[in-house]
Structures are given as C-alpha cells and as structure tokens.
Specification:
264 residues; alpha/beta; D-Maltodextrin-Binding Protein, domain 2; 2 domains; 8 helices; 13 strands; globular
C-alpha cells in the first residue's frame, strides 16, 4: 500500500499576483485563459461547495498557488470516479480532490509535486462490532468507487462486502440509515461526518496513515502547467500559506515535515 514519495518540485519564476476566479458550479463558460478545475462538492474538508463557492483544503491551496502564478481558475463539480478520465480527455485542466498518486493513476494523468499525504478512517455506527480491518469480514462496507479507500478495502479486508458509491454523500447516507455496516473515508472527512451527525452515532474506529502523496492531476505531457503548479506550491509552502490553509481545514492533523514553512 505504501509508496515512496517522489518529491521533484520544478522551479519557475512567479508571475504578477492577480485575483483568482473561483467560479461556482460550472454553469458559466470559462473566459479566455481560465483553467477549468474538476473537483467535488461534498467531500469535506478537502473539496466541497459552501454557499455557492468551492472551498476546502485542496481547493483553497490551489487558489493560493494560482494567485502566485498568475493563473485564473473556474471550479466545476464532478464525481470522483470520472475525474481522472475527464482530466485526461481535456474536459478539465486540473483535478483537485485529495487525489492519491498511485502507479495505476499515473498511467492516466500526470501529477504535481506532492502537497499532502493520504490518511484513511474506518467509520461505523455503534453496535456493528467493527473495530478495525480484521472485523470487516462479512460486513457491508461502503467506499467511493475508484478511490484509495476502494483499493485499500480490497487489499486489506478482501472478505468484506464492498458496496461502491459514486460520491461521499451517497456513502454517508447509506451508513446513517444502516444500509451498510461501515465505510472507509479520508480520515479528516470521516471525523467531520462523525462530529456533525451525532444522532447517527458514528465513530472513526481506526485511522490508517499512509505515505501515499496527494497531487493535483493534469493531462499527461502538460509539463508547463505542472511546472507552474509546482512553482506556486513551492512558494506557498515556503511562505507559510500551506500551514495556514491546513490549520483552517485540518486543525487536528499533524503538519508533515515536508510542508512546514521554509522547507522548499
């Protein structure tokens, strides 16, 4: 499951700072020179929509990178299972959604330098008997199709009954109603669901930390855009912006050494 970190960050000169266009929803056509960003609308705290604005750790970090590199963005909602193929086809210029950089995904798209690491959480309702991966045998466990949660479940609890959904919202709804016994989410997302749904008596029974890096996805061969993202990422890590965005959305998660101010 664990992958080595490929930390190659390119160096480009930052352009003049301009305002970032954070468009809402995708109903409006992007203007000339505007990059279309495929993202999610329901995956807190990484990528979601609130009061008509796309936000979350990944999206706010991308906005800061774009400002540093004089890039304009339009955010558009999609389903995770379709996101990488949509980046590969050119429908979106960038994919932003806590995307783990796996060897299989690198066959479809290229990635920016890492900007975070993947952590998962096993979530269940009280009384299901789920405590860790060893207790998932025979249980109906929800995952979002095509995510690391999906592949992790197949590899680490093959005797579980995987129930695949197109997005987090559908998975959470099934968990709350008892249609599934448990679910695997990003750890921060799982903790957010438990805190905000007290009546459902949800609990993150185990957190799984990996060394799989997250990256922004771009079309294969688009080295110019990847280089600009990497240069902007390097700048926002060095000046402490990364840590500020992380504190805003994931205050309880430790800051990896790679992303502390001044590290790049």
């Amino acid at each position: 499951m664990k992958k080595s970190l490929a930390a190659a960050v390119g160096a480009l000169t930052a352009g003049a700072l301009v305002a970032v266009l954070a468009a809402c929803g995708g109903g409006e056509e992007a203007g000339a020179g505007t990059l279309r960003v495929g993202t999610l609308s329901d995956s807190k705290p990484n990528a979601y929509q609130e009061n008509g604005v796309f936000t979350g750790f990944d999206n706010e970090l991308l906005k800061a990178i774009a400002a540093n590199q004089d890039l304009k963005l339009e955010f558009v909602s999609t389903e995770f299972s379709a996101l990488l193929s949509q980046v590969a086809s050119g429908k979106f210029d960038i994919g932003s959604s806590a995307i783990s950089q796996t060897d299989e995904r690198r066959k479809t798209v290229d990635f920016s330098a890492p900007y975070n690491y993947q952590s998962l959480g096993i979530e269940a309702r009280d009384g299901t008997g789920i405590t860790d991966e060893n207790s998932l045998t025979g249980k109906r466990i929800g995952v979002v199709q095509g995510t690391v949660s999906d592949s992790w479940l197949a590899s680490n609890a093959p005797a579980a009954k995987a129930v695949r959904f197109p997005q987090d919202a559908a998975t959470l709804a099934a968990l709350k109603t008892g249609a599934i016994d448990g679910a695997i989410f990003d750890q921060a997302t799982a903790e957010d669901y438990a805190a905000k749904n007290p009546d459902a008596k949800l609990k993150v029974v185990k957190a799984i930390t990996t060394t799989i890096p997250h990256g922004f996805a771009v079309r294969k061969g688009n080295t110019e855009l990847a280089g600009k993202i990497n240069a902007g990422l390097k700048a926002v890590i060095a000046d402490g912006t990364w840590e500020k965005v992380h504190q805003r959305f994931e205050p309880n998660a430790p800051v990896p050494a790679d992303f502390k101010a001044g590290q790049r």
